[in-house]
Design goal:
35% helix; 8-stranded antiparallel beta sheet; 177 residues; two-stranded antiparallel sheet; 31% strand
Length: 177
C-alpha cells in the first residue's frame, strides 16, 4: 500500500501495554501500520477521519444490518473529541493526548490510533490492532484458527482503512508525504 509501512507496535504504546478486563488474553498478536502525512494532524482529526471515511462507513452499515448496532458520523466526531466513550461495538479502553485504544465489547479485538510529529510540518499516523488469544495449559498463547485464516484479509483491510483515513484527511488539508 503506497506509503504505508508495517512495523512492530511501540513497546510503550497502549496497544501493547493496556491489559484491561482480561489481561491473560492479550500479547499474542498485534500489528502496526504507519504513514506520514504533510501537515499537523491531531488525534481528534485522525480518529474522526478514520471512522467517517467511506470505507469505514461500509463497516458501520454491515454492523447495523447484521448486528443491529447503529453509529453515525456525529457519534464518530463525539468519540474523536472525547465527549463519548462508546462507538458502535467499541468502547474506549484508554486514551492519551496522542493515543486512543478502542476495545470491542466482546473483548476479542482492539483498535489503536496514534499521532506524532515527524518534523516541522509532518505527522506520523499509526493504526494497529490486537487480537485476543487463548492460553494453553503450558501458558503459551494461541490464536484461533479462524483468525489465522483471516490474517491476510485483516492486514490488507487495516491498510485500506488507514489509506481511507488519509484520503479523508487530504480532503481537509493533510496530504501523504
Amino acid at each position: 500500500m503506497l506509503g504505508i509501512i508495517r512495523s512492530a507496535a511501540p513497546t510503550n504504546s497502549l496497544l501493547v501495554t493496556h491489559r484491561g478486563r482480561h489481561p491473560e488474553r492479550w500479547g499474542g498478536y498485534h500489528d502496526c501500520f504507519r504513514i506520514c502525512v504533510r501537515g499537523r494532524v491531531t488525534l481528534q482529526q485522525f480518529v474522526a477521519a478514520f471512522y467517517t471515511s467511506r470505507l469505514f462507513r461500509l463497516e458501520r452499515t454491515l454492523l447495523r444490518v447484521f448486528l443491529a448496532i447503529s453509529s453515525s458520523d456525529a457519534d464518530a466526531y463525539a468519540l474523536a473529541r472525547g465527549s463519548r466513550d462508546m462507538f458502535a461495538i467499541w468502547y474506549v479502553g484508554a486514551r492519551t493526548p496522542t493515543e486512543l485504544l478502542m476495545c470491542d465489547r466482546y473483548e476479542r479485538t482492539r483498535s489503536w490510533f496514534h499521532v506524532g510529529p515527524v518534523d516541522s510540518g509532518s505527522t506520523e499516523l499509526c493504526f494497529g490492532s490486537s487480537v485476543a488469544g487463548r492460553r494453553r495449559a503450558d501458558g503459551s498463547l494461541v490464536m484461533s484458527a479462524s483468525f489465522g485464516a483471516l490474517l491476510d484479509f485483516h492486514v490488507l483491510y487495516s491498510q485500506l482503512l488507514l489509506q481511507a483515513a488519509v484520503r479523508s484527511l487530504a480532503g481537509r488539508g493533510a496530504t501523504s508525504s
